[in-house]
């Protein structure tokens, strides 16, 4: 965008807006799109984890997952923030929004007429997994089981529904393929409340690493938006 284009954008000039849109689209295609599956998986994992904590232990359990960047001292949520600031919810609740690009500390978005928002960083490895075709693993296990094993390792822990959505497979077929992975000793599961959580075994992780398809820095910790009313 040329230096003088800011004024044109402020005026709502159609040509300037189209030019900006084109630049943003090109930037997204070049720098974000190649990593979008990794970004989406990190955010989905965060939402799933915190949602399960909320369902199992209520608001207190959910807010405890934000340590050390936030501390729940009823009735106050103390957040690590660059400046001193008091934000009174006044019974309106708080929208928690996970962000892959939020770094280290949460930020607040506040408009007196709208629901207060806390944007927080999702937990993520230092770098995304190296690009790999997964062809060798797919030939060994079959494409669906290979994809499921990779997703289980990437997320660290996930429900059957989350995995079915991630690989684009029906729920019954996902259950069947996961059972085969368990029988082979590549994955395991445990029941947590009403959910069955799947996780990789050491053998499954070693197989992925040998094939070059494993997450670069190990599986993501289980993590996701939730509305709470402290």
From TrEMBL:
Limits of the HTH arsR-type domain: 139-213
Annotated Gene3D superfamilies: Winged helix-like DNA-binding domain superfamily/Winged helix DNA-binding domain
Record's keyword annotation contains Transcription regulation: yes
Highest taxon above the source species: Bacteria
Keywords, ordered alphabetically: DNA-binding, Transcription, Transcription regulation
SMART domains noted in UniProt: HTH_ARSR
MF term (GO), any: DNA binding
PANTHER family: ARSENICAL RESISTANCE OPERON REPRESSOR ARSR-RELATED (PTHR43132), HTH-TYPE TRANSCRIPTIONAL REGULATOR KMTR (PTHR43132:SF8)
Protein name as catalogued: Helix-turn-helix transcriptional regulator
